[in-house]
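Quick one: structure tokens for this chain, please?
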Amino acid sequence: MAIAIVIAGMLTFVGVAAAAKIQGTGGADTIVGTTGSDSLYGLGGEDIILGLRGSDRIFGNADDDELYGDGECPAGTTDADYCATADTDADGRDRIDGQEGDDVLYGNGNNDRLKGSIGDDVLYGNTGDDRLEGNAGDDDLRGNEGDDRLTGGMGSDDLRGGAGEDSIYATTDDDVTDLLFGGPGDDVLRSRNGSRDDVNCGGGEDRAIVDQRDEVSPNCERVFVNNN
């Protein structure tokens, strides 16, 4: 089936085809995909983008955006025109890239990949085995359920795995403090970056690879220290 290509116009847009390439404007757009595998681009402005079902690719751009891999509407939203389309019966494997700006990214169900890029971003993996990358900026990454991989990047990051067997990395040498929290499950936490980090493994049988400068909680069962 052909893919619809649509240019939004600083308005609420709801996809009309089984799969779509939807491109926003330089203003604040609300873009909702289809039940197919969409490519959704916010461009400029503070956009809200919902992928709905399907394995979607979602890109924010230069402003402060809210990007949702599937159809769960933002808290407090009352716009029935697009919230009525929020079909969460099946979740796709979404790829979400915040680009520049201070963005909020939601993976929701299935195994998603979220990239914060530049800015102070908040990333939620939710259910599924997700991959979250904060990159530059002071980021907040929450894996939640599933066996997730969290990578902070440059900046002072808050990395929390949640339930599941998570891998958490704060390995960029940027001389700032990161917080690593494993949560329930058998986790691996790596903070060999030369900076002083706070490492809390949480429940489970965990492994922490750390620097001598790091503050490591007693609930880390196996601790490997970099003596350099």
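Residues 55 and 93 are 5 Å apart (CA to CA).
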